[in-house]
Amino acid sequence: MKYFLHLLMFGAINFGALFVGSMFTTPAVEGTWYSSLDKAPWTPPGYVFGLAWFSIMVCFSFFMANVWNNKQLTPRYIVLYTTQVVLNISWNIVFFYMHATWAALIVIVALLLIVLVFTRNGFKTSTLQGVLMSPYALWLCIAVSLNAYVCFAN
User: Fold this and answer.
1) What is the pLDDT along the chain (154 residues), one digit of tens a residue?
2) How far is CA 54 from the centre of its chain?
3) Hey, how many other C-beta atoms are within 10 angstroms of the C-beta on 38?
4) 92-119: b or e for each residue (b if 16 or more CB lie within 10 Å)?
5) pTM exceeds 0.70, yes or no
6) Strand (E) positions, 2-143?
7) How far is the C-alpha of 136 from the C-alpha of 141, rounded, in Å?
8) Is residue 100 helix, strand or coil?
């Protein structure tokens, strides 16, 4: 029972962060600024972003619930997790609302580094934990490349 409460708690936080980020993303994607950007040729269609983030946050919620249940939720993990949430939301604000693509690149690289720490620690714990974090790390590698392309092309 406790596991499912932890899963629901992390799910609420993770999906809450996505919701807050989408408040800054959706209007910008529908506006002229984003549509006028020179985007990478490998930019996926819009619907892929929603599917990817949904899947990533489900996996990440399971990952964090497992961390808590395995008594690995140290103060360092809490700081990393909180920083990850803040950076995830901040990227949307910096990129889509402020149109500061270079600053957004710094934010997303920092986010990727934190997720890589989670991924490495996950694989140290179990293959399942590492696999749960791998979609997030992979997607952020793609996102960094998309953000970098915009920086250098525009």
Assistant:
1) 899 999 999 999 999 999 999 999 988 888 899 999 999 999 999 999 999 999 999 999 999 999 999 998 899 999 999 999 999 999 999 999 999 999 999 999 999 999 999 999 999 999 999 999 999 999 999 999 999 999 999 8
2) 10
3) 9
4) bbbbbeeeebeebbebbeebbebbebbb
5) yes
6) none
7) 9
8) coil
Tell me the residue length of the chain.
154
Give the position of tokens 């708690």. Answer: 9
Task: Give the closest residue to 6 by CA, choosing from 52, 53, 51, 73.
Answer: 73
d(CA 116, CA 101): 22
- Token pair listed for 45: 């269609």
The secondary structure of residue 96, as a DSSP letter, is I
**Encoding tokens for residue 19?**
């919701």
* Positions of E strands within 3-124: none
Handedness of CA 64, 105, 17, 79 (dihedral sign): positive
- Matching residue, tokens 């974090």: 133
* DSSP for residue 154: -
